[in-house]
Amino acid sequence: MGVAITGMGIISAIGHSVEENKTSLLASKSGIASLKHIQTKHSKLIKVGEISFSNAELTEQLQLSEDHNYTRTGLLGLFAAKASLKDANITDSSEYRTGFISATTVGGMDMTELYLKQFATDTEAQKYIQSHHAGDSTQKIADAIGITEFVTTISTACSSAANAIMLGARLIKAGKLDRVVVGGTDALSKFTINGFKTLMIQSDALCAPFDADRKGLNLGEAAAYLVLESDAVVQKEEKKVLAYLSSYGNANDAFHQTASSENGEGAFLAMQKALKMAKLNPEHIDYINAHGTATPNNDLSESNAYRRVFGNDVPDFSSTKAFTGHTLAAAGVVEAVYSVLALQEQTIFPNLNFKTAMPETGLKPITSIVKKELHHVLSNSFGFGGNCATLIFSKA
Amino acid sequence: MKKVFIDSAVSISAQNTFDTYGFLEEIKDISGKTVSANYPNYRDYIALAASRRMATAVKMGVTAASKALEKANLKQPDAIITGTGMGCIEDTEKFLNNIISNEEAFLTPTPFIQSTHNTVGAQIALGLNCKAYNNTYVHAALSFESALLDAQLLLQQDEGKHVLVGGVDELGKEIINYVRLMEDRDSSGIQVPFSEGASFFVVSSEAKEAAIQLVDMEVCSTASEEKLQENLKGFLLRNKIEPFQIDVLIAGRNGDAFDVYYDSASSFFENATELHYKHLSGEFYTASSFGLWAAYEILNRQEIPKPLIYKDESTSEINTILLYNQFKGRDHSFILLKR
Predict the structure, then answer these.
(1) CATH 3.40.50.300 is right for the domain spanning A244-395
(2) Where are the domains positioned within chain A?
(3) Short-list B260, B244, B265, CA closest to B335
(4) Ketosynthase family 3 (KS3) domain: which residues (chain A) (predicted)?
């Protein structure tokens, strides 16, 4: 049956809770807008999925002392991780063998880019030297939620959180953990904004995944976590199961450091592995929450991979990145939350801003709210470095 | 559950550990704030054109990985798993400084592309055209241990038979100086230079002759000294090992105030020879992979180089080694090896 999901927490551009995210999805209300919190020359030339809370507001919400050295990545992560535990009705993390696996790409970059040139002399800024490395936000969140044993961080670019979810499930299945909080967090930063700018894959308009005239992605920021629990704990605690993570697949495209292969080899292999592990045939997949970043390269490569896996019967699919922006390391878990919501609501969320199918494949995503019987939802995340990951979620 | 063996171990470090058949024969005295690794001749492993674009960590990682595969007679691993504490900090600093000095103009994508933490794992996969499972761990002093734990899990659960796993970190040019600055402000701070390196291993579930077994490992995010002792007891008990059966303890001492954790672990093993290595490798988040490399060589060669010895209890045969590492009192790891 897979591994039980018993709690979810999320903060994204379309809401500060699971409920708010669900409301926005059902109302087709995008969170993409102009940049507010970061000073950059490019702010007028890009659209982003930014979380409305400032760092000061997050600090207050989380009841942290004002002199803390959390980066925004850490603040967002703690906000979502706490919510996931609350959702799973967990008050004491020491009851069971509990782990914490978080994903990030930027780590503490949001503070490093502000203070780098002050680190040598400014004692106020120096507290952020130690918060640069990618493990820092994870350590802080783990300490704050009382998880003391198995704690780690994964960074495989835009598939990071999917790999964090995968590792958590594997540890539960192997009997090494009873309970694990898995997900990821990435704040927007000048570093990533400029990075994607140099790659010329950032759109100045609202992103349009899978559209023939797509112009690139909108960056976003988010944090989200799932609580996974073993069957024994679910039974003993009489836990309500939100959905099951049935299977997963990880493969490498081994094609290029940033570009995806034209035939979507890595994506194809990851989906095949996941289907095989779940003992499902392609026709059993009722909905795909696609990676769909709206870059010319990704969406074509991904579409070709769908044709290879599903032939002429590609299941209903949509990318929700036009709601949240591409939240990088967090994308895999943001979309895992949306996949679980899709199963709970028996609803497919729309792929916003789509007008014309790309001529190469003719594939059309779902563009409005569709109520439908959903048993199995497949979610994809692909990243730089060829890191491809597929997760399959099934109805509880 | 399948057993896990180490088939090969390769290290690039501040010492001459790569281009040699010897085992820490000539020691390079390392001192000062930071020390670069002893870089091998990359030409033997990476095409010159490709090498020119690669940062230090990528070159060290790809080279150490190639040699680890070669030594294990393996063409294609079933998984590539990398651990790195600071990731590709050279290119990160380069891109960051370009943003600052050029005020976000005239930027080129290359340093950004190569700044992502999974660059080493990705470049290894690209070079081998390896489409298998690929993952990168970036959790400070547990980066390498997380990678090794993942490899152990894959093999135990029969999700693969041969896994390439390694730890790699490069010094970079800027942030490391700030880290050093903060460290040196504290008289009980880290007493060895910061350094860099790459150690890669092929681990497998197939026992070969004279194989070295990775019996078990365990990590712990935070623990008091008392809790650490409890954890260590539990770890030995679960593996049915009595303290006197440990021939060698390899501790990650770096001279800072948190070495008391090693003292408290060491008190368990009165008969064991205790080794240290960070005075040779320098300190960095994945320095413990150098410790594992040394442990592998010791078991293989049945020989302990003198410079490694911290407390000598001459042992005739070396069959069981325990490695313990921590950083600033957190990110504790135990690794148990058996010949």
Answers:
(1) no
(2) 3-236, 244-395
(3) B265
(4) 1-395
